[in-house]
Amino acid sequence: MVHTLQSFIGGRWQGKEAATALHSALDNRVIYHTHAEQIDFAEAVHYGRKTGIPALMKLDFQTRAQRLKALATYLMERKEELYAISHLTGATRPDSWVDVEGGIGTLFAYASMGSRELPSSNVLHEGPAMALGKRGGFSGTHILVPRGGIAVHINAFNFPIWGLLEKFAPSFLAAMPCIGKPASATSYLTEALIRMINESGLLPEGALQLVIGSTGDLLDRLGGADAVTFTGSADTAAKLRANRNLIANSVPFTAEADSLNCAILAPDVTPDDPEFDLFVKEVQREMTTKAGQKCTAVRRIIVPRQHADAVADKLRERLAKVVVGDPSVEGVRMGALASKDQQRDVAERVAQLAQGNEILFGGAGALKLVGEGVENGSFFAPTLLLCRNALSNDAVHDVEAFGPVSTMMTYDGIDEALELAARGKGSLVSSLITKDPAIAAYAVPIAAASHGRVHVLDRESSVDSTGHGSPLPQLKHGGPGRAGGGEELGGIRAVRHFLQRAAVQGSPTMLSAITGEYVRGGAVRESDVHPFRKCFEDLQMGDSLLTHRRTVSEADIVNFGGISGDYFYMHFDEIAAKDTQFGKRIAHGYFVLSAAAGLFVSPAPGPVLANYGLDNLRFITPVAIGDTIRARLTCKRKVDRNRTDDQGRGQGVVAWDVQVTNQNDELVASYDILTLVSKRA
C-alpha cells in the first residue's frame, strides 16, 4: 500500500486522501502520495503565534541552544532511518551524508555557537554603549530582541533535511516558530524527519509545523513581524518576492537561488602542478555529487586557453570512471536525478547549451546504468561541454542545467577569466585554483563583488578543504544578483537576521537594566563581600569592588622586565624615552594588567574557578614611575551555560568590567575579564 504523506499543522497530523503521486528516482515506481485535503493556513499561523511564540519565549537563548544540542543528539542516534529513505531520492550514501548528517551537524554547530555567544536572556546587547552627552548621564546602544513573529521556510527538492534544518536552527534560537515547506518531489524525507523530531518531545509546542503540498494563501496571512526564506530557482524566488502582502507589510524575504557558479584555473598553474589535479578532481566531484543537483555546483569551468585540451582529457578520464546506477549496488558513485520532471528539464537545458558548443563527454545515449529495474529511473549522464567563445555566448552564462552538467570555457589572461566569472550575474560561490598568492590577492576582491563565497584552493589548503560546494554553518551562504541577494548561515549572524534590532537611549543605569549588561557610568553595588567570594547565583550585574591603591616604582618595571624578558627601550632607556611623545620612561602595559589583577583578585579558594580570557583590552594613558593606580572591578554580564564540575556543581560564565585609573582619575587601562564561576552546592 502506498503511504499518503501528512502535514503537521496546529499540533496534529492532517491528510488522508491521496493526491499527487511521488515516484522513486531509481525506478519510477509510486512510493508516496501527497494529501488532497487543503490546509487551513489561518490555523497554522494562529497556532504559531498563540502557541509557538509564547512557548519559545519561556526559554532563553541558552536554553534553546541546549534544546538544539539535545535534538541533534537524538537525530544522530536515528540517522540510519533517514538514510534508508534518502536512498529513494536517488542519492548515494555520500550524497545522503551531506543532507542527513550535514543537517544534523548544523544543529550541533548552532547549539555550540549559541552556548558560546548568546546570553541567558532574550535580549542580545549589540554594544558597546556610547556616551551621547558630555556629563555622562545620557548614553545609547543597540539591542536585538525576538521579532514576535513566525518564520516560513520554503525549500528545494535537493536537500530535504539539510535545507530545513539549516534554516530552522537559527530561527529557533531567535524564538521564531517555523513553518517548513519542502518541495513535493522529496517531501517524504522531510516528513520522516519531522515525525522523528515530534517523537523526541524536545521542541516546545508550536515550534515547528510542516506543509506537504502547496503553500496556498499562507504568504497572504503574514505580517511585518514574520519572515520568509526561500531556496530554489531564481524564477520562483522572483514570483514569491512579488507577493503583494509581503510587499505591503514589509515582510523580510530572503532568497537563496540556483546560480551559475564557476571554478577558475589560474594562469600560473600548469599540468605538472599538484593544483592542476586538484582543480580537475574538484570539478569532477562537483559535477557528480548529488548528480549535480546542488545550488553550489560548478556550472562553468574557466581555464587558460593553452591548457584547455589537458583539462578536457583529464576530466574525461575521471568522468569515465564514474559508475552510475542504483546507489545500493557496490561501486556506484552517482545516483539519479530527483524525478522524471527534473530529468526532462536537464535534457532540455543541455540541448540549449549544446547549440554552438561541443559536447566533450556524455550527452544522449552515453549512459550505462548499474542495478536492477533502473531503466525507468531518473538518471542522466555526466555531461561536459566546451565553449570556445564564452565572451560572446550568452547561453553559457544564462542557462543552468540542474544536473551533472558543466561547460568548460577558455580565457586569455586573468582579467578575462574574472570577466567571465562575473557574467553569471551573481553566484553563490566561485573557486580559484592557484599557487600564486599575488594572483589570489588580485583576483579574490574582484570575484567577491559578484560571489557570496570565494574558495581558494592550493596544495596547502587541500589537506583540510571542505570543497567548493560545501556551505559551512560558520560562514555566510548566499550570493548577489541571480543567486537571490540573501544570506543564510554565517554563524550567529544568521540568528541576528531573525531578530529585531532597536536603538535604545537612556542613562547608563537604565541601559544596564535593559541590556542585562553593565554599562559604564551606571549604578554599582559595593558591599563588604568581595565579588569573587560570591557564587554564580548570588552575583548580580553591577556588583562592584573599588580596590586599594598601588604606586608604581622603578623596581616594579625592572623586575617585570626581568621576569617577562621585555626590555623595550620605552621602559628602560631614559634618554631615548625623553625623545618620545611621552617624554619619560613608562611601565609595561602588561605590568599594569598584572598589577591590576593583584589589586582585585581574592586569593583564597572560592567560587571563581578559572580566568580564561580577556576581551576589549585597551591601554589608554601611560603609567610612569611614581604614578598611583587602582582598579574597579564590576560584574558586567552573566551567562548560565549549565556546565558542571567534577563534583557535579553547576557553573556559569561571568564577564567583569575592569577599569584601571591613575591618581588623577584618568583611565589608564580598560578590559573585560572572563571567569568560570561555580554555583552553590
From TrEMBL:
The record's keywords, sorted A to Z, are: Oxidoreductase
What Pfam family is a match for this entry?
MaoC_dehydratas
Record-annotated MaoC-like domain positions: 542-647
Q: Is Oxidoreductase tagged as a keyword?
A: yes
Aldehyde dehydrogenase domain residues are 27-459
List every stretch annotated Disordered.
458-486
Q: Which GO terms describe its molecular function?
A: oxidoreductase activity, acting on the aldehyde or oxo group of donors, NAD or NADP as acceptor
* Tagged with keyword Oxidoreductase: yes
Record-linked PANTHER family: ALDEHYDE DEHYDROGENASE B-RELATED
State what protein this is by name.
Answer: Phenylacetic acid degradation bifunctional protein PaaZ
The species is Pseudoduganella guangdongensis
